[in-house]
Design brief:
heterotrimer; A mainly alpha; B alpha/beta; C alpha/beta; A: two-stranded antiparallel ribbon; B: alpha/beta
Amino acid sequence: MSRFLARIAPQLVTLAAIVVLVTLFFPDFIQISFERGRFVGPIIDVLKRGAPVALLAIGMTLVIATRGIDLSVGTVMAITGAVGAWAIASGYGVVPALLLAMVAGLACGLWNGILVAIIGIQPIVATLILMTSGRGVAQLITEGRILTFNDPAFAFFGSGTLLGIPFPAVLWLLLAVAVTLLMRRTALGMLVEAIGINRAASALAGVNARVLLIAVYMASGLCAAFAGIVATADIRGADANNAGLWLELDAILAVVIGGNSLLGGRFSIAASVLGALIIQTIDTGILLAGFPSEYNLVIKAGLVLLILLLQSPNLAHTWRFLRDEAMRRREPEPELHTRKEIEP
Amino acid sequence: MPMLLTIRSLSKSFPGARALDQVDLDLRAGEVHALLGENGAGKSTLIKCLTGAYRRDSGEIRLDGAAISPGSTSEAQELGIGTVYQEVNLLPNLTVAQNLTFGREPRRFGLVNGRAQREEARRMLSGYGLDIDVGRDLGTYSVAIQQIVAIARAVELSGKVLILDEPTASLDAEETRMLFGVVRSLRDKGLGIIFVSHFLDQVFELTDRLTVLRNGQKIVTEETARLDRVKLIEHMLGRELAEVEDAERRRTDPEAKNRSELIRFENLGRSGLVQPFDLAVHRGEVIGLAGLLGSGRTETAELMFGVRAADSGKARDENGDVACGNPREAIGSGFGFAPEDRKTDGIVADLSVRENIILALQARRGWANPIPRAEQDRLADAYIQKLDIRTSGADKAVGDLSGGNQQKVVLARWLAMNPRFLILDEPTRGIDVGAHAEILRLIHQITGEGMSILVISSELDELIAVSDRIIVVRDRKHVAELTGDDVTTGAIVRAIAADDGAHK
Amino acid sequence: MIRTLLVTAAISIAATGVSAAQTIGFSQIGSESGWRAAETTLTRKEAEKRGIDLKFSDAQQRQENQISAIRSFIAQGVDAILLAPVVATGWDSVLEEAKEAEIPVVLLDRQVDSSDDLYLTAVGSDLVHEGEVAGQWLAENVGDQECRIVELQGTTGSSPAIDRAKGFRNAIEGKDNLEIVRSQTGDFTRTGGKEVMESFLQAENGGQDICALYAHNDDMAIGAIQAIKEAGLNPGEDIKIVSIDAVPDIFQAMAAGDANATVELTPNMAGPAFDALEAYMADGTMPEKFIQTESKLYTQSDDPQAEYEARKDLGY
């Protein structure tokens, strides 16, 4: 447990710092009230609005742990949202609509997984194929329009509440816990890390790297399906052109802010989800602070850059070095020429 | 003779370990000076302090009498200290000329002057007896030539001290000879050369003096000619050689042939890789596989373990066919395989020692059936103790261990599986003398428990020491089998060198 | 698709029987939005109504596809070309080729940077005017009441976002009771509209302090309506909503009382274009260089349900 806390400490501190920063500009940020059977407040909005990226980040963490990347998740959101909305609009009912959307997400993941694990295409290229072509598939399903529906049961997945908490927030929280338990209570987590660090050695040790890789991309597809359902249910319509647009990049960013290496290996889902919350807090903070919209991207980029700089191992190294240096100065060693450089 | 480089009382600590403790070293101009020691003795730390990759904690380095404190490799280079590593750190996709002049290309009108660049490159290579096209990509040349190009570049840039870190590890005998010629001519030009190697023969052949490090301390500096091999190994190990010799003693077991058969490979082969061969493996037997690099040694192992698919033949035991079409099947059939290239195919560097040890076992049990943590700890601790794996704990990343200990972790992974047939490809490559002896001892120990082993090695002494019989591979074909008293260096060399048909 | 082909074929046969049937090429940008799909549908319908043989080409957002489509129209010897240009620049040479072949070109919906003698005319809406119509409606509707307005802008830097913001401000200028208190981009999407509206509601006392919403397109307004409902307020009453485009779904919202007004950006650009072409071919009448389509205002009193029914099959 203490090891878990130590792992996510940088993300927790960053999140706290961003919350403090936003509160400086918008003092009501941390206020939460209870109205009409639900909690209301900017923080609740963050938990809810951050759901798509948090859900995507869960799957993306696993893919990145295998030294892969999944650029198609934004598009898969559009496809699964379109499938779900189509099923609802065609009168299939909520459960079949959900199942169809999930099957669509798994199918997209299977496609990516086969390209990567069996045909051997580099993940960034393999998933780029679906990223660019998949929106066309979604548009075919929606016939190019925003496919709207008015089923309150389906809309619940976007705007409903459970115990006063927005359902999307409950969903990502439960999924993150479930996937973490699945990874850590079984040997899956270690095996995923092993193939990410050294696929050849793992395969020689008898790890079924192919099946694991396909499974990981399917998990990412399923997470994207959940995100697609949330996004579609939220606006009660499937917008094939805009649903999930560029969210794959936010998801990757969340994983990176979560301190997971793009080179694969050790991963933490909790840290990735915190990364997603950090991004959403910045987004919501910018909206609440009331800056002109021209500044949105610049402010976001600046803050993200700052976070990544502060988290970078090189900087931590420099910091430790400078600290040691300062201590050494107090007990001088005259023959040594001190230099402010660090090892490469 | 004046000292070119003097190191006095150099110390360097890492969290939890004192890597260098008051080390002294003198390097003369015009000498080749061997730096020896087991893995973890402090050789690489010393070199990294010299080249500016690490900052020393205390001590003094003087070059030509002046105190220096390089803060980076490029700074060390400017001062006159150049380094060439085992893995050539040049860019294979640039031409030889581009590599040689990288960062200081001759320019005309602000553009790189290709012709002048090539001329400059030819001039730099002129003293090295190399007649190569400097306009070709570096990667198209052999590792030996790449090494020499790297040396030429290092000498050009620095020109006083040249550090060669395991330069011959991936060279064959002819290439080594060529490299030594280059090193000698540089010595004669007055460079001071520090030579790091595990190959003691080469140390005796090439170097003028040597320094032995052990546990971060300097043990001795001596004229090479005044030491014999036994004395040197004793310095390096810090113990009497009797132990080592005991482990390496030739095994003579007259019963070897009478042991019951475990697995028989019949007509196993793949065109273009290894010609079909028959091989019977007996219980508790060690089979040595000898042959030159590229002769089909490793490929034989890969066919047996299913790393590459065979296009003919099969394996069988007393119960019928044995599946070994891919590694998972082979593991299921009770095989194990510790591959030649530990770093790329053996260890999973960022995982812990514990996780590396249980990896194969866990893969066989399936993801849904995790090995309980207590059981993992028990296994890891047991093998750390049994194989004497030097690590600060089971949860240390295996990539942080020395080569010999990494090899032991890979061995532990397979021993934990309790396979019936274990293939070890170059189990002692690149590891120090002490670990070397331990691994050979281990091989004896585990065959004593009934496991059968196939060992592949380039070191004939080692092969002879451990094997009950030896298969010689030449030109992708199993050409000879030596047993009993026939197992001698001479016989193996003759079989490797023989024309087709001489040994049948 | 097949049906359309058959109909077009039937008409062209029928038309050849009557007189010199016109063949007109239409290079469309693509089908990136519902509005664009509706424009395509209406152009086909207008052509069908007038007995024109329409040759349709979908450029899938690529200028080179449009240029090669126009060259192919010229080679086929069409009587006129409609072009909805994907970008503003790079049209000079292909427009000159059309001019040399004496084929008039009419630009639909968007402008180009080329000299205006290279095309016959351009049909389009005035984006600033659309904003003005929306602003005027709001100003008249609230009268002298104090009104704090929030604005959902289009994609930052896009010309509709800039012009629709400008027109709205022109209309409310000098009316001291009207004030835009918050303005943020919703990227023209429903999700964006909903998310930004949620933050507006949070920032403005749970929405109590907001009197009206001006959205640069209907989709953002539809997203915002859901946010307002979820905050426990009544869109259309507690917060007045005016937006632009007149897509079918906003009429449904108006029929339900959730939205108040919308300004139409008509997808029927082809009608005026064909009118101008007919006049030009009949007696050489030169049209104006810019034909502005009507920016018609629809409110809840304009039978929104009927408007919805009329539009829902246009491909929005």
